[in-house]
Amino acid sequence: MHPLLADDLSRLPELLQSARDFAAREVSGLDARPVVAPGGAPAARPLPDRGAGAEGALARFAERWAPGFSASAGPRYLGFVTGGATPAAVTGDWLTSAYDQNAAGGDASSAAALERETLGWLRELFGLGDAHSGAFVTGATVSNTVGLALAREWLGERRGVRVSEAGVAALGPVEVLSGSPHSSIPKALSVLGIGRDRLRTVPVLPGREAVDVARLAEALEALDGRPAVVVANAGTVNTVDFDDLRAIADLKERYGFWLHVDAAFGGFAALSPAYAHLTDGIDAADSVCVDLHKWLNVPYDAAVQFTRHQDLQVRVFHNASPYLGLPAGEPDFVHLTPENSRRLRALPAWFSLAAYGREGHREIVERNVALARRLGEGIAGVPELRLLAPVRLNVVCFTLAGSPTRERVHALGRAVADSGEAFLTPTSYAGVHALRAAFSNWRTTGSDTDRVLAAVARAAASPPRARGRGARWS
């Protein structure tokens, strides 16, 4: 054994304690550090010929790289839809690395059984029935891709083609209908060979991002019986708008289509009695996407994909090999997702659900929604700002008063990021350049929200300044 490896092995408990102490200092300082680190990244160095051992590597990381990491796990990082990591989830994630289980297979370990238990808990949490089976994937993009891959196979069945065998060229043109599809949907269509151009945008309700169900029915009627894919939204990115899932599900009785529901973070509305009605009808979906490193607050990367059609899932993703064989009975996860090998992503989710239960995670959801409304009310009171949409759940979409050009809005976002107080992401809503603040972190409090509002108000009241070497915002 190499002497550095041998030395690290002999001192492993001490090294783990050093890593634990360093991580504890970093996490405890999240509230004080800039949300987005100023300055650029260090210049790359050549691969060392002789290593420094684990302790030396930790010291080099702490000196060169740690100062430039963002506080994305902290309470005022409101860009994208980014959760943090609950204490229990961090515990589970560290143990995931320590045990280093390959969860794709089911032999010689209880890891796959733990994942199935976690999937059962999540299915119950989101109001899905026993007909839905699930699997862990890296994030919403892969979850949407897997769901649409099953839809592709389903379409092939209706045309007498096994796409998984004959290829997508044998399928012919595909119709994919959606009101406000997330950007990962056309990306998935590209990956699957269906093509971005096959996505047909259906008109939405006035002043909304929710699809007009009557117009969707007209689009389906125009297909004259040809099968299609409908991508419904349970929470849009800009305004957290929800399609009427129950009404769309009712259309399935009349038209032949595959219903995929993108519930990446909006699905968590099911946890709260006040908002659960928004997800009514999700159980009728043929496939469902839910992203766990958003509102469940587990570390990256973790999402789930649910489907009513595990047989199609096995057909698409089964791994034919002499040492694996074809799946019989309950298939191993190697036959359900694109990955043959992967870490036990379920363990951080299992820890967080076991630690805080439905009640604890409901509190996170309801507190984040209340804080989003608090920020929205504050922004409505700032003369230089205006809301672009009602605060429906956990996202605040707003812009500058007057003429919100791209340059002015982006300058506002950069100024907020450069202040170190908060991080927001840009968007465009109803043709207007805007910023959006997404609340999904378990740490965020009322005082954090007030600090965000103050930072945004200060930046809006000040003339835009030239961009220096500050935060890389856009």
Describe the fold and architecture.
- This protein is of the alpha/beta class.
- Among the domains are: 69 residues; 242 residues, Type I PLP-dependent aspartate aminotransferase-like (Major domain) (Aspartate Aminotransferase, domain 2), CATH 3.40.640.
- The protein has a seven-stranded mixed beta sheet, with helices on both faces. Strands 8-9-11-10 form a four-stranded antiparallel beta sheet.
- A hairpin with a 2-residue loop joins strand 10 and strand 11.
- Helix 5 packs parallel to helix 13, helix 6 packs across helix 8 and helix 14 packs across helix 15.
- The longest helix has 35 residues.
- The radius of gyration is 24 Å and the shape is globular.
- The C terminus is likely disordered.
Write the layout of secondary structure elements.
Layout: H1 3-10, H2 12-28, H3 53-64, H4 87-99, H5 111-125, E1 133-137, H6 140-158, H7 163-166, E2 176-178, H8 184-191, E3 199-201, H9 213-222, E4 228-233, H10 245-251, E5 257-262, E6 287-291, H11 292-295, E7 303-307, H12 310-317, H13 346-380, E8 385-387, E9 395-400, H14 406-418, E10 425-429, E11 432-438, H15 446-461
Parallel strand pairs: 2-3, 2-4, 4-5, 5-6
Antiparallel strand pairs: 1-7, 6-7, 8-9, 9-11, 10-11
Helix pairs in contact: 2-3, 4-13, 5-13, 6-8, 6-12, 13-15, 14-15
